[in-house]
Amino acid sequence: MQSSPSHTYSQSVDKQRILVVGKSKARITEMILFVLRDYHRKFDFTTPASESFSDAPIVIIESNDLSPDIITYQPHIVILSNMPADGKDTYSQLADSVSKCGVIIYDETDSKVKEIASKERPDVSTIPYSVYKHESQAGKAMLITSTKEKISIQLTAVEDLKNISAAKELLKKVGISSGQFYRTIASFK
Questions:
Q1: How many angstroms separate the first and last alpha carbons of the chain?
Q2: Alpha-carbon distance 172 to 189, whole Å?
Q3: Residue 91 has what pLDDT?
Q4: What number does CATH give the domain 5-131+162-183?
Q5: CA dist., res. 9 & res. 75, Å (int)
Q6: Is pLDDT above 70 for 2?
Q7: Looking at residues 141-163, what average pLDDT do you find?
Q8: For the chain, what percent of residues have pLDDT higher than 70?
């Protein structure tokens, strides 16, 4: 079934709506779903091509919609990853549509995204992300935690290390601890 923002909103009005947009949306969403599945968390997932709804408390929405209709989702949390060249107006409108007490998680290495996210909005908090702190050992990336522990992961691309930061910030907001995140993301490919 084809999805539209208004249909998705009407089916998820009583759920926490989490929207992921931008050039890295698919990879960030893969990471989020991988961790949620590993901990048997109930969630719904929609893309422009398909949707499925259940009694899950949250819905993860991956959208490539750059039309003004995107604000119809009224997300509680939005991840703004690296912005397409023609996305400034849409990203601005989307950030303005985040629900009260909502959160904007944004790529602080993209100056245009940072500018949009930095605009003051009543009752909306912002969380910047960038390349996760890491080091390379024998061709493998090691995430460095806040306690200086080193977590070996399967990924080495800088963009993936940035996406890990976005996924981790979002998953904290839905109750996944840092320890849970590290245990699971270590096996993500």
A1: 29
A2: 21
A3: 92
A4: 3.40.1190.10
A5: 9
A6: no
A7: 94
A8: 98
Instruction: Write the burial class of residue 49 (CB in 10 Å: 0-12 exposed, 13-18 middle, 19+ buried).
Output: exposed
Where along the chain do its domains lie?
Answer: 5-131+162-183
Calculate the alpha carbon distances from 79 to 62, 76, 141, 147, 154 in Å.
Answer: 10, 10, 24, 26, 23
> For residues 33 and 36, what is the distance between their CA atoms, to the nearest angstrom?
5
Phi, psi of 110 (to 5 degrees): -100, 105
Bridge partners for 59 per DSSP: 17, 44
Element (H, E) at 117: helix 111-118
Whats the size of the chain, residue-wise? 189
Q: How would residue 36 be classed by pLDDT, with cut points 50, 70 and 90?
A: very high
Token pair belonging to 24: 């890295």
